[in-house]
Specification:
The protein is mostly beta strands. It has 4 helices and 11 strands; from the N terminus they run ααββββββββααβββ.
Length: 246
C-alpha cells in the first residue's frame, strides 16, 4: 500500500516490538485470546500477493453515503449527520490512490445491525451501518453518515465503548489489509476505554482521534471530521491487525 520496497517473494515481516502487549487484563477477553505459544511464520502465497484488484466500477452510487444506502425511498438514517473525510498517505507523505476503504459502525443509538447484538437500543430501519469507497488520485476519501452512539459492553461492570467507526483498507493484495478504529474529538469515554488503554503510546491513540473540521461542514446539514491515515513510519496510524503498518 506504500512505495516502500517490499522484500522479494513476500511482504515486509511484522515487527513484534511495535505491538502493544497482547495480554492486557483490563481488556478482559485479551486474557484468553493472548498467545499461549510462540508465533509461527509462513511465506505468503501467490493468492495473497496477486489480488484482488479494485476498480471504481466495484462501487455503487450510494456506497459512501451511509445516510441513504440502506434507507427506504425518501427516507434517511436517524441521528446527527456527519461527513468523515481525509487522505491516505505512505510514510513519505505521498498520496495512496486506489485503496479500497470499507467502514462499519453502530447507529446513533449505539447499536449494530448484527444478529448477535445484545444492546437494548433500537435499530434504525433506515441505517445499515456499512459503506465503502476507493481513494482518489490524491489519496482522498469521503463518507456521509451519522455520528455513532457509545454503547456498553460486557467487559467490566460498567464499561462503555466510545463512539467510533471501524476502518478497513485494502492495498494490492489480501496480505495488505489494515484495520483500525476512528474516534471523535472531545469524547470523554476514549480515555476510559480498556481497549484504547491497551495502546501504551498516548500519541498513537491521539492519531486515532478525528478533529472537528468546521471548514468542511455543510451549514444546516452536517458537521465534518477529518481522519488522515498514514501507512507506516513515525507518524503512522495504529492498526489493530498490523501494528507496525505496511
Amino acid at each position: 500500500m506504500s512505495d516502500t520496497k517490499i522484500p522479494q517473494g513476500g511482504y515486509a515481516a511484522r515487527q513484534p516490538g511495535h505491538h502493544p502487549v497482547a495480554l492486557y487484563p483490563p481488556y478482559r477477553t485479551s486474557v484468553k485470546r493472548s498467545p499461549q505459544a510462540a508465533p509461527l511464520s509462513f511465506p505468503t502465497s501467490i493468492g495473497e500477493e496477486s489480488g484482488p484488484v479494485f476498480e471504481h466500477d466495484l462501487l455503487g452510487p450510494l456506497d459512501a453515503d451511509l445516510l441513504h444506502n440502506f434507507a427506504q425511498d425518501g427516507a434517511s438514517a436517524i441521528g446527527p449527520r456527519i461527513i468523515v473525510h481525509g487522505k491516505v498517505r505512505d510514510q513519505f507523505d505521498r498520496p495512496v490512490s486506489g485503496a479500497l476503504i470499507e467502514v462499519w459502525q453502530a447507529n446513533a443509538g449505539g447499536r449494530y445491525r448484527h444478529k448477535k447484538e445484545g444492546y437494548i437500543a433500537p435499530l434504525d430501519p433506515n441505517f445499515g451501518g456499512c459503506g465503502r469507497t476507493i481513494t482518489r488520485e490524491d489519496g482522498s476519501y469521503e463518507f456521509r453518515t451519522v455520528l455513532p452512539g457509545p454503547y456498553p459492553w460486557p467487559n467490566g461492570p460498567n464499561d462503555w465503548r466510545p463512539a467510533h467507526i471501524h476502518f478497513s483498507l485494502f492495498g494490492a493484495g489480501f496480505a495488505q489489509r489494515l484495520i483500525t478504529q476512528m474516534y471523535f474529538e472531545g469524547d470523554p469515554l476514549i480515555w476510559r476505554c480498556p481497549i484504547v488503554g491497551s495502546i501504551g503510546d498516548k500519541s498513537a491513540v491521539e492519531r486515532l482521534i478525528a478533529p472537528l473540521d468546521m471548514n468542511r461542514t455543510v451549514p444546516m446539514d452536517a458537521r465534518a471530521y477529518e481522519f488522515n491515515i498514514t501507512l507506516r513510519g513515525r507518524r503512522q496510524t495504529m492498526f489493530e491487525n498490523r501494528m507496525e503498518g505496511l
